[in-house]
Task: structure prediction
Amino acid sequence: MATTGKAKRIVLVSQDKAFVQETKAALAASDAFDLVAIERGVLDLRGEIQEADCGAAIIDMDAARLDQVEALQRIIRRLEGKTPIIVATQEFNAAAVRILVQLQVADFLVKPVSTADLVRSCLRALHGPGREENAESQIYAFMPAAGGVGNTTLALQTAFQLHHSLTRGAATCVVDLNFQQGACAEYLDLEPRFDIAEIENQPERLDRQLLDVMLSKHASGLCVLAAPTRPSEMRTFNTEIVVRMLDLVSAYFDNVVIDLPRTWFPWTETVLLGSNKLYLVTEMTVPCLRHTQRLIQAIYDTVGREVKPNVIVNRFEQKMFESGIRQADVQEILGDHFAGGIANNYKLVREAVDRGVPLHEIDANANVIADLRRIILPEEAAAAAPKKARSLFGLGSGLLRKRA
Result:
């Protein structure tokens, strides 16, 4: 997982039994945390936090009550700045926020607290503000504009590039949300282990321990969360299941790559809004590019301008003296949504899929890998330019640089 090393003790002070159980589930089985629960109110505390010799403390309290705020102030004075405090409260108002900021608590959270927010807050408290940027999971969503455009191949290769990246290299998980016909596990010769039926009626059962059981693990360290496919069952699932799953995965992995199905489900909008980067994968045909235009508009109509679709044109071929679509045509159709093109290397991709291995195991300098790196990790691609990876596209091509 993303966290390693000796576990640091966290003390939880709360009389809310449900919150205590949720916190235990969120932090369970992680190498970073050793949780100790004190089921008392903040007014009843004496020296328990100091005696626990903890790395951080979570105090569940009513930040709008003056007596509880005064009790918190006394605790902070006794700790002398040696133990960071995270405050969890049911309601927030401007006055409470000002007081908590003045008391210099490490963080404050509003209940109900998501697993991801709770884990990140604990990591920031334990490791200090310098870790804050790296503690935030980056979510990359891939959506196909049509069938057979190579969405799964590019999603998996992106995951490998992130997993081995110099700047983003850390724990990475691929989540296959194509429950009917997903192929992520198949492409890597792994057994899909995500049993949706086990949590379908009780999404809260999915905790860190159960997630670990349901992950398929590649020899490289990359993890894949994929369910056995059911081609004859066109099923949809409660949005709460998908949200719970992604919330938990993003709490424990630094990079999350999502392989979305072409079909739009009730939870699709939530996934799009929760992603840091959205890539639409298309190919160089007139019908596919036109449908990509319609898909871009549909995304804007549904989720607004908060999410910008970045289009990757797969099997991109530049034919200077033949009829058909040219680079200029692609740029005109897609505008600033065009993120770049991926070379047409059918032989390499076919061999990788048939052998169940990532592309780089066959040819680490393949044009497909170089083109994708320029889109996903442009800074690293620029640094590697002297290596002259074999690509159809020149490094100076303005068309293929990543648009903001």
Summary: The chain has two domains: 8-134, 137-400. The longest strand covers residues 309-316. The longest helix spans residues 286-303. The chain is about 40% helix and 15% strand.
